[in-house]
Amino acid sequence: MKPHSLLLFTSFALGVGLFGVQGTVFNMSENNSGAQDVVGHVGAFRVGIQAGHLKSDEAPEELSGLHGHGTGARGGGATEQEVVLKIARLAAEMLREKGVIVDVLPTTIPPLYRADAFVSIHADSNPSVVVSGFKLSAPLRGIEEKSPELEDAIYDSYEKATGLRRDPNITDSMKNYYAFNWRKYQNAVDPFTPAVIIETGFITSPFDQRVIVSNPELSARGIADGVFEFLNKDKN
Ligand SMILES: [Zn+2]
């Protein structure tokens, strides 16, 4: 190839490359206008729902501490991963029915994942079967001021939908959950994505099992309703 044809080839390839990138961005803003929108909300909302422990063995090096944790807690003949995946899929369906774009995400979320709301779904465990209840946490050091609003909305809706009691024992690992610890991890939400983690109940509690294991649609309803209310709160 002669130098000038190489140059031509290069600029052609560059042009195709640029066009490709622009095409992607355009498609994203078309389908995902809400997430990129600063001034007002146009088009559909986008929500990320993480099914806790899903594909945890595929987590990258920075999250290698999660390897070997497998499917999380166990109880009622089910694993935490099975239970929360069911809840995540049902909640996603309920939100999609209302026109929300939903990504159901595994342990590893895309770097700087951006959405109008992010909810990580887990279930708790305890050596004592009488310990029960659900709880939520927003990031400890979030700069996204709306995370507590999302937290409040789901507290109310989840309590209403499931009849489970609130467990006040929020742990540090909830507040510092890796998926919203963008200071420390690449595979985390971006700083402007409102984010919460929910422990949907104790998988080791027969009382909570009646909801999260036997009637996961109640948990899903509680989460979907809270998210939807949060999304539409500021919509005029
Ligand atoms: Zn978990």
Explain the overall architecture.
- InterPro entries: MurNAc-LAA_cat (IPR002508), N-acetylmuramoyl_amidase_3 (IPR050695).
- The protein has 236 residues and is α/β, with parallel strands linked by helices.
- The protein folds into two domains: 1-31; 44-232, Zn-dependent exopeptidases (Aminopeptidase, 3-Layer(aba) Sandwich).
- The chain has seven helices and seven strands; from the N terminus they run H-H-E-E-E-H-E-E-E-H-H-E-H-H.
- A five-stranded mixed sheet has the order 4-1-5-7-6, covered by helices on one side. The protein has a two-stranded antiparallel sheet with strand order 2-3.
- A hairpin with a 2-residue loop joins strand 2 and strand 3.
- It is globular, with a radius of gyration of 20 Å.
- It starts with a helix and ends with a helix.
- Residues 1-39 have low confidence and may be disordered.
- Zinc ion binds at residues 52-53, 72, 80, 122.
User: Could you give me the name of the CATH homologous superfamily of the largest domain?
Assistant: Zn-dependent exopeptidases
Strand order of the largest sheet: 4-1-5-7-6
Bound molecules: zinc ion
Q: Give me the number of helical elements.
A: 7
Radius of gyration: 20 Å
Question: Which CATH architecture of the largest domain is right?
Answer: 3-Layer(aba) Sandwich
Structural class computed from helices and strand pairing: alpha/beta
Cα distance spanning the termini: 60 Å
- The rough form would be described as globular
Q: How many independent structural domains?
A: 2
Arithmetic mean of pLDDT:
83
CATH-derived topology of the largest domain: Aminopeptidase
Count the beta strands. 7
- Write the element-wise H/E pattern from the N-terminal end onward: HHEEEHEEEHHEHH
What is the helix fraction of residues, given as a range? 40-55%
Biggest β-sheet, characterized?
Answer: 5 strands, mixed
What is the name of the CATH class of the largest domain?
Alpha Beta
